[in-house]
Design brief:
One of its GO terms (biological process) is carbohydrate metabolic process. The chain is an alpha+beta fold. 30% of the residues lie in helices and 22% in strands. It is globular, with a radius of gyration of 28 Å.
């Protein structure tokens, strides 16, 4: 920070620290920065802010949870704090207690509604962003209580129908409990629904419980009151929960008196409660007759006023016209459909890479998510999100979501070109200046004054993708910069030919600088594989350098540097068939595994399918992936528990298995699993937008082992050369004007 350079400040801080027996924080900070390359930006302030909030919650958790383990806590706490559970993490000198073992949840919602309630693996519903939660319990009159968060095993799935819902079932001897969470419109207002069903072999009570916690930990409730009709709560004076029937018994407790769970059999009934530390708990009880099912639905309005949202059949309308997958493998079919629903849900205006931890905007995540939207025909959503990009561009041309991330401009220009390519349009006039300024920023940002250093001509050291390591001269940034300049040149070729030539020349010059730098790395490392930066050895951060092959396609599919980098990663950085990012994420990454799979698919290497299968195995029962996955337990260990970038990569992977662009050629069926053909059913995908037009492709097996590949297309202009590369069969170059071939 610049103010730290002022001598008085340094002297004061150092003196105060020594007086109180602390290490000199300025000296310590300078040592920390010494492990990174000098950079104009340390870490993006947005990430620092998010980290502070995250660990502030963890500090509160450490003050509350471990001293009150008799409370009923969310699933992750019950597992992570259980010394006999594989998810157990010793607390020891940890200052903060955070969810590092079961960061799994699934969003529900309504198209274009910004509120995204989340459901944890045992059905706990958190209706508002980072809010309190609702849970369902079953209390039998013999004293047994079915608490889903304490159940080792439970069944959960996602329904993809007229509404998107998450269903959870738990049971113990003689007791059954299920819940369903979804969002629907009522008089134009989105309302989150939480339906709980209970069945017991003996009489008992269904318990609707209000919890001051969520999948990140404690979330304060200061007050709650039961309505006069006993059919709802008012929480903290501004949120309402309505029950479908009046509560027959009702209890409230505060922090000093312990969890309401221990008061369920109290005779005294309470209607309201306040807690000065924000740990109010409440329970509404509804009688359950022996052998009969009792059902209660809680309704939580997500806004106060009617919103301009699609009507009740919105999900059906949204999914009309997008590229549909028809395949004989239920797991792949479900994961694709769930990923499409996830993309729709998280693109209400901006696009979000997650409903909770990552419910904010990054250009990097947006580029991949919008590419997925475009590639399956959700073009209007993609265009709406892109239309918001210029307002985030600085006067200097920088597309800024976070400072110090120099990949953003290249990603913006690349995804803009994808939008215009896949829609067959030319950039409208209002796009010309943002494109020009964005491309000039890339050129101006390069380190041209350096002439001999390994980073000469590259972009400055920056934080870049946070999973690559400390500040450095990342090739990830450079490859995106080169791609952005080429994209700008293409988009301006007709309307601004002079600018187009300038940016093309800049891209060529930039590529030469990167090639020179990589040649130095090859000499130093004694192999062609690309490290993360000119100053790094080959390590897990090299995953970022794959951007030259996917998705930018700046090099040929068989580029030795690219393939050697992949071989290093497969040999040294994969665990149980998935990429293990040992820096920061410290977990298996579904979306980065699929980046490697895309490189293998382009190269015609059949190992792409092994990686796809591994990613399919890592998905949750609801069809989602957390950003990073614990290699031992399979639970989320980092990032958002519902990672939309991962959903986007699954959609893109499936799409590219059926139809993908390779330069000026169109490749059909290059990644369809051979095992699908053995089922004897027609396999299809589409209609899928491509750079050449919209394509629908199908594969029909026959008893003689000679399947027919057929396609229909609406080309933008002329039909491109088409290669049919169905695995297990000799590649075929389709005759121009035909729409099928028998292999």
């Amino acid at each position: 920070m610049t103010w730290m350079k002022w001598l008085p400040w340094r002297f004061v801080i150092k003196s105060v620290a020594r007086k109180h027996g602390f290490l000199d924080p300025i000296a310590l900070l300078s040592k920390v920065h010494g492990f990174a390359q000098p950079s104009e930006v340390g870490e993006p302030i947005e990430l620092l802010r998010a980290g502070v909030v995250f660990h502030a919650r963890g500090l509160i958790n450490s003050r509350v949870i471990q001293h009150n383990l008799d409370w009923v806590w969310p699933y992750w706490i019950e597992r992570q704090f259980d010394p006999k559970d594989p998810s157990f993490i010793p607390r020891a000198f940890s200052i903060t207690h955070i969810n590092l073992s079961n960061r799994n949840w699934t969003a529900v919602g309504h198209p274009d509604c910004d509120e995204l309630p989340i459901v944890d693996p045992r059905g706990l519903l958190t209706p508002f962003f980072d809010s309190w939660s609702l849970d369902g319990w079953l209390l039998a009159e013999d004293g047994r209580c079915l608490l889903p968060s304490r159940m080792k095993d439970s069944r959960q799935w996602q329904e993809l129908g007229d509404v998107i819902s998450v269903d959870t079932e738990s049971s113990m001897e003689g007791l059954e409990l299920s819940s369903r969470s979804w969002v629907e419109l009522e008089d134009g207002i989105p309302v989150c629904k939480f339906r709980v069903r209970a069945k017991s072999e003996v009489a008992g009570s269904l318990v609707l419980a209000l919890r001051p916690a969520n999948p990140e930990g404690v979330s304060f409730i200061n007050s709650v009151s039961l309505s006069d009709k006993r059919d709802g709560w008012t929480v903290d004076g501004n949120r309402s929960v309505t029950f479908s029937a009046p509560a027959e018994r009702h209890h409230i407790s505060d922090y000093r008196n312990g969890d309401v769970h221990i008061h369920l059999t109290d005779r005294e009934d309470q209607k309201e409660g306040v807690c000065d530390v924000g740990m109010v708990t409440a329970a509404a009880l509804f009688s359950v007759e022996a052998g009969k099912t009792r059902e209660i639905t809680a309704s939580i309005p997500l806004s106060q006023n009617p919103a301009d949202l699609p009507e009740a059949d919105a999900w059906q309308t949204e999914q009309e016209g997008h590229a549909r997958l028809v395949c004989p493998e239920p797991r792949y079919q479900f994961l694709y459909d769930a990923a499409v629903a996830s993309l729709i849900l998280h693109s209400p205006d901006d696009v979000y890479p997650g409903p909770f931890t990552y419910k904010r905007f990054w250009f990097r995540d947006a580029a991949f998510i919008i590419n997925a939207l475009l590639s399956i025909g959700l073009t209007a959503r993609a265009g709406r999100a892109l239309s918001r990009f210029p307002q985030r561009q600085t006067k200097g041309g920088y597309f800024r979501s976070q400072e110090g991330e120099w990949d953003a401009n290249g990603e913006v220009l690349w995804i803009l070109k994808r939008f215009f390519d896949l829609t067959g349009r030319r950039p409208e006039k209002h796009w010309h200046e943002p494109i020009r300024r964005g491309a000039r920023w890339i050129t101006n940002k390069r380190l041209r004054k350096e002439t001999e250093a390994p980073h000469a001509g590259l972009l400055p050291a920056g934080f870049s993708a946070e999973h690559l390591g400390p500040n450095d001269y990342y090739y990830w940034d450079d490859f995106w910069g080169i791609s952005g300049l080429h994209s700008a040149a293409d988009m301006l070729a007709v309307d601004s030919p002079d600018d187009s030539r300038t940016f093309r020349n800049d891209a060529v010059d930039f590529a030469k600088a990167v090639d020179r730098s990589l040649e130095g790395c090859q000499q130093r490392l004694k192999r062609p594989g690309m490290p993360a930066s000119p100053y790094r050895r080959l390590d897990a951060g090299a995953i970022g350098s794959l951007a030259v092959g996917y998705p930018t396609q700046l090099c040929a599919p068989d580029d030795p540097r690219l393939l050697d980098c992949v071989e290093f990663l497969l040999e040294r950085c994969f665990v149980d068939g998935a990429f293990y990012q040992d820096m920061i994420h410290s977990g298996l990454n579904a979306y980065l595994t699929l980046h490697v799979a895309q490189i293998l698919l382009r190269a015609g290497d059949p190992r792409y399918l092994q990686l796809m299968d591994s990613v399919a195995e890592l998905a949750s029962p609801t069809g989602q992936w957390p950003e990073a996955i614990h290699p031992g337990t399979g639970g989320g260990c980092m990032g958002d528990g519902h990672h939309v970038w991962a959903s986007a990569e699954w959609v893109l992977m499936v799409r590219n298995c059926f139809v993908r662009e390779e330069g000026e050629r169109l490749v059909l069926c290059g990644g369809i699993p051979e095992r699908w053909l053995e089922q004897g059913e027609t396999i299809s995908f589409g209609p899928a937008p491509t750079a050449f037009g919209t394509v629908f492709v199908s594969v029909t097996p026959d008893s003689e082992g000679s399947p027919t590949v057929a396609w229909t297309a609406d080309w933008h202009t002329e039909e491109p050369p088409i290669d049919v590369k169905l695995p297990g069969y000799e590649p075929v170059v389709a005759n121009p004007g035909t729409n099928s071939t028998k292999l």
